[in-house]
Amino acid sequence: MKSVERSNSSSRLKAVSGQDRPPHKIDFAELKIDALLVSALPNVRYLSRFTGSNALLLITPDSFTLFTDSRYTIQASEECACRIKIVSKGPLEVAAVEMIKRKTFKRIGFESSRISFQAYERLKGTLPLGASLKPVGPLIEEMRMIKTADEIARIRRSVLTNSEAFEKTIGSIRPGVSESAIAAELEFKMRRLGAERAAFETIVAAGQRSALPHAQPTSQKLGVDELLLIDMGSCQNGYMSDMTRTLFVGRPTRQIRSMYKAVLNANLAAIDIVRAGATAGEVDRKARQVLESAGLGKSFVHSTGHGLGLEIHESPRIGKKEATRLEAGMVITIEPGAYIRGFGGIRIEDTVLVTKHGCEVLTPTSKELILL
Fold it and tell me: Measured at the alpha carbon of residue 98, what is the angle toward residues 96 and 100, in degrees to the nearest 5?
């Protein structure tokens, strides 16, 4: 956090963090709160740069205070420029309430969708007489939708690492290799190339199991004349990437080629709609129309995509009834798919940067059907 300012004209917080993050404003007066407790770790990181696993951020119109435990004394001092309170014992919420008491804050905003019931009960039970908790919407998540130049650079690097790990792995995939072994090799390659970890549990699904959109890798071995669906992402410098490619072992049938072409056309058509001002629903609708025209509408069982950044799933959701308008600086996935029980599934997914007049596909990996 490089600066915290109090506006004389209104209760607005300007908090600048990250390499080049512009000022973000939380209108305390409009929200009718005196302070805001941020408990979601990605939001804590976004605002303070702190990357530890136990933290709470108390924000007021003129201050930021990070609460964490003694395991992170050195780390917090190195990562954060805000006030730091090391809690030697007890829950962080209790320590935050002690500060709330001293400052005589009465109306405390909290992230209602991000806090556990246990933590909420702890807060509620320790607040001083006359103080109250007020749930607030996804304020920080809305800020996070628009990425800065630094965030985009981190995502771009994560995407390239992910694609390179894929390219370095597929040459060694052969019939008889298990799904779990392929997933392990992909994640090993990511780390060797600089990723901290996989962005999520890598999906590797062979044969009929490729019809499971979120299949977990198993000991099942890859056979001949089978589809192989790989959905993978890396986490690098805290930022996520996401890509799906579908491969085929052997010589694909006409049905496979036709189905693959339909999914690819849906991917390309949706990407063509992506630009600042388009709604998330319009993008989803375009992908869905292409698959419906190919007779695969009912086989497309999930949304067309989602935002990503510090988390693998962020706003905006690219779904049927989503009215959110895309803005330049958003990073989303485009991932139409078709899944047929007893046959298999095909999904093609790219990470895409929204620009003022269109978009940039960050994923460099070819979308042609890969034959093994």
Answer: 70
